[in-house]
Structures are given as C-alpha cells and as structure tokens.
Specification:
mainly alpha
C-alpha cells in the first residue's frame, strides 16, 4: 500500500489516459504532473494560487494529453478574445513556461495500485 500523503508527499490525480512522466530534460509529452502538483510562475498569476493544480491546465481527449491553457486556449483562460492579444498571450506563455526546452519537473512518480472491490 502506498505511503499516506505527508509534508513530503503530494497526491495528484491524473487522467487514466495521460502519458507517463518523461525523464527530466526529455521533451514534454503532456503528462500534466508538473502543473497538477503546483502552478508555474505564469500559473500563479493565472490561477491566483501558489499551491495545488494550475487552473489553466487543460485535458485534451482528442490528443490524450494535458496542455497549458495559456498556450492552447488563452482566450478561454483569461477571457481576452482580441486576436492580436491572444497571439501575444500565446507567445508570452510559450516563453514563460519554456515550451520546447524539456521536462524540468523533479518529481518522483509512484502509481497507486487499483483497489479491488
């Protein structure tokens, strides 16, 4: 049985179809673990919180992965719909979250075994 959550453990619930966390430095695959455990600096601004899941994180059934809402749908996250502003927000978000740089989540992942009923 997994250890109960403590000050050193955080439990996050992922979509069952979410890909496994990539190795540190490997390209992001949309596992969502980093954004579900805590918001990045941009996520703190958007979510208005420093702990817990980022409010901007979006699950895509079509892609089978998580996306940063500030990159994939900034209008849906912020309510700003002017095309030039949406393009600027997307570009700014890509820069702030270091899109394309690689996974920087220093998190240990432990799957919870299914419960027999």
């Amino acid at each position: 049985m997994p250890a109960p959550p403590s000050a050193n453990h955080t439990v996050v619930w992922l979509q069952p179809e979410a890909p496994a966390k990539p190795a540190e430095g490997a390209p992001c695959n949309g596992c969502g673990l980093c954004c579900l455990s805590e918001p990045c600096p941009l996520g703190v601004l958007v979510s208005r919180r420093r702990k817990g899941a980022c409010a901007a994180l979006r699950w895509s059934d079509a892609d089978g992965r998580y996306w940063c809402g500030m990159v994939a749908d900034p209008a849906g996250v912020t309510g700003i719909t002017h095309p030039w502003a949406v393009r600027a927000l997307t570009a700014l978000a890509r820069r702030w979250i270091a899109s394309g740089v690689g996974c920087d989540a220093r998190l240990d992942v432990q799957a919870v075994p299914p419960v027999d009923r």
